[in-house]
Amino acid sequence: MTDRPVRAIARLLAPAILVLVGCAGTASNPEQLADQHGLKTTWVRGQGYRHRLFQRGADDGPLHVYLEGDGQPWLTRRRISADPTPHNALALRLMLRDPAPSAYLGRPCYHGSATDPGCAPWIWTHGRYSEPVIASMADALRKIAGVDRELTLIGYSGGGTIAMLLAPRLPNVTRVVTVAANLDIAAWTRHHGFSPLTDSMNPADMAPLPAGIAQLHLAGGRDRNVPPRLSATAVARQPGASFRVLPRYDHRCCWERDWPALISPKPAGRSGPVVD
Predict the structure, then answer these.
(1) Would you list the domain boundaries of the chain?
(2) 108, 137 in Cβ contact below 8 A?
(3) Where are the alpha helices (DSSP H) in the chain?
(4) Is domain 29-275 in CATH 3.40.50.1000, yes or no?
(5) Confidence grade of residue 29 (pLDDT, cut at 50, 70, 90)
(6) For the chain, give me the number of helices (H) and strands (E)?
(7) Which of 128, 130, 129, 133 is nearest to 46 (CA)?
(8) Of the ranges 73-82, 115-124, 235-244, which one carries the lowest mean pLDDT score?
(9) Quick check: 129 pLDDT over 60?
(10) pLDDT, averaged across the chain
(11) Is 177 helix (H, G, I), strand (E, B) or coil?
(12) pTM of the complete model
């Protein structure tokens, strides 16, 4: 091959190489992301556990609260992770694209706190949506926002499960948005052949949220982790909830790219499943 074709190929590949280098140099874990973007970082004490808190924007007015997915509770089907904190925090990435005042609330025993008193692998495995977890997160949110500051709960994957369980406990929640969320954990564990999430609460079994809480549930048509059909029945039990399926999305793509347009309020209309 002569030098001329080699140079031509190099010119064609250069943009792709730059993209790959840029991605490789971008922070991905929660602490790196928070530091990179200058977020206010602290801990807040809940009911029995402490929670990592990242914040941006005004200290008053409506607040968007982001809740992360399950992270890495298991290393393999038989080996439990010593630290379930996600390596690539998609919910935090969504928050960073949201112009509204926002807060990212971590779960009990995540973000390097797995050795805290009261923490045990049960908290991030079978009990990941248990009463102690939800009660502590609700208490932390009361301390962050009181009971008057208007809250929108935005949960990715298992964070969407938590958003649904938190919403009826906080009188100032006005909207819930879930993204690729496992809203029926019994159907989800059966689908994957996982052991049941013992002592975890299931949004599919809960009473409908109060009518004053708007709901938007987003699902990816190519999501193999949480196929839309697994959550459709649970959403159907929530009067007025909107369920939007985006055919070309999967569990991770392309939520960050199209945020926050995806959660912009839509005109009143259909509330059943909508396929774009």
Answers:
(1) 29-275
(2) yes
(3) 3-24, 30-36, 90-96, 121-124, 131-145, 158-166, 185-192, 228-236, 255-258
(4) no
(5) confident
(6) 9, 9
(7) 133
(8) 73-82
(9) yes
(10) 89
(11) strand
(12) 0.88
Q: What's residue 55's pLDDT?
A: 98
The band of 91, judged by pLDDT with boundaries at 50, 70 and 90, is very high
Q: What are phi and psi of 53, to 5 degrees?
A: -135, 125
Report angle CA 28, 132, 165 to the nearest 5 degrees: 70
Q: What angle, rounded to 10 degrees, do the helices at 228-236 and 185-192 form?
A: 160
Q: Which two tokens stand for residue 254?
A: 């392309």
Answer yes or no: are the C-beta atoms of 159 and 68 closer than 8 Å.
Answer: yes
* Cβ proximity of 116 and 50 under 8 Å: yes
Question: Over pLDDT 70: what percentage of the chain?
Answer: 86
Q: What's the Rg (C-alpha) of the chain?
A: 20
Residue 128 tokens, joined: 């990941």
- Record the tokens describing residue 219, joined without a space: 């699902």
152, two tokens? 């929108």
